[in-house]
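Students often ask why we bother encoding 3D structure as a string. The short answer is that it lets us treat folding as translation between two languages. Here is a chain of 576 residues written in the first language.
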Amino acid sequence: MENGIKKTPSSDKINSGMKKTPSSDKINSGMKKTPSSLLSITELDDFYFQHLSRSPRLNIERKISLDGCSISGNLRHIDSHECMSPLGGFGHRAGFDTPNSTSDNVYEPHMMVVAAWDALRKSIVYFRGQPVGTVAACDFTSEEALNYDQVFVRDFVPSALAFLMNGEYDIVKNFLLKTLQLQSWEKKIDRFKLGEGVMPASFKVLHDSNKKIDTIMADFGESAIGRVAPVDSGFWWIILLRAYTRSTGDSTLSETPDCQKGIQLVLSLCLAEGFDTFPTLLCTDGCCMIDRRMGIYGYPIEIQALFFMALRCALQLLKPEGESKELLERIMTRLHALSYHMRSYFWLDFQQLNGIYRYKTEEYSHTAVNKFNVIPDSIPDWLFDFMPNRGGYFIGNVSPARMDFRWFALGNCIAILASLATPEQSIAIMDLIEERWEELVGEMPLKACFPAIDGHEWKSVTGCDPKNTRWSYHNGGSWPVLLWLLTAACIKTGRPHIAKKAIDLAERRLLKDGWPEYYDGKLGRYIGKQSRKYQTWSIAGYLVAKMMLEDPSNLGMISLEEDREKPVVKRSSSWS
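And here it is in the second language, the structure alphabet:
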């Protein structure tokens, strides 16, 4: 053990013995895509496609690293099996698997892409010799691993997409099955039992070299800061299962009884009837990417957008038989209500803002315009200058007498990809990003939240959180991982030039800075004060963004089209 790196004596031998097989090339050659093969989303500009047709294709040799991160922590044991030699799991060739027109057109791949793939492979975690995920970070310079040496469900998504786009399916399949297995176990925090459908926030593989035993331990929130269960994990699992099915063209995995049951359990938790008067999901702080107290309790946009996307993915994955038939009807009913609610009450543009500014209060009737009794004086001063004449976005939260007007990048990008946003709203979100580039992107894409809160508001909202100070971490920090979501949204809305501009910004510093977790400052100029280096999702997010620009058909695995059978919600005159 040196600097938190556990080396196995056989790793070099294994790496040197990894060779491509003729079958792997054959498999890959059958998976080549043309830029238009899956695109039914929107027209991309002619220049962009001409550029794609001339682009040299990249081919990067695969390197497997068995170096692990240090193992620490106190999590609950789930199961254990005997170890096997870590040879399996990758039957396909690594790198961008796109054809070269002629040998003269080949030149060296981008140095940063090569470095990113190498770093991503070093983060792979093995269980019984099979790859099952990637650790959150491999920052060997840090004294404490904390929980960064675990496989997080949300963190693995960009890694999984990178592997899928590269034709490496086994690691994603193994991850889906392993997390599904963990879902079935009893989950308790103190003496309280969690719902059956809850997916883990993360899991960790412990290797006992003496007994040759691998043990998996899972965290369902009992070890997390604040002891909050991850609401988003189940949604990301369903979204990733659909991405795997779409990428492989094989529905065998999703149609297994275990996967069908897993989807049912996740959504049954969310669709259960209760005291709610809204179709949105009521959540506590810290239940998603923003996993610390940041004032997102209530109905946060990130959860609502992921919920909507997971529901739509489930419609494609569930077989209309048995228990699923009734569940599918409930999903359709909820989707109609949720899309109306979000498009009507969470959407904000110049016209909407002016309407809220003129609200009357204390209205009591079914014809009330100010349905949530929002006090106009609660509109923050910064918003009047921030809102351009052209553009709009889904605000952070809506609940009785409260509107959280902050911008949250993840929720808005997912809203575009899931078609929760109408085509007009999707264009408006991209218009806002262009109009407010310095505020939302700055020198390092992308602000997780804007603006930062400070002073008394920071004290009351975060509880004086020393990590979420002004323009840091979740409180206005810049997160490179969001680059893949921005790129996907740009391609879907026909704005690839925005993605290209953002990627160019990231390439100036990400590799040189050691792939930080996040950046601080109003413009994102400084490496975060507690930012981990070699953050896996920063690495994978960059790779996914690059591969989507290289081959826009990759967008099909993560994007959903507008449901033409669902009526587009028109803004009522009362909001004008």
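Translate back mentally: The first helix runs from residue 11 to 16. Keep this in mind for the problem set.
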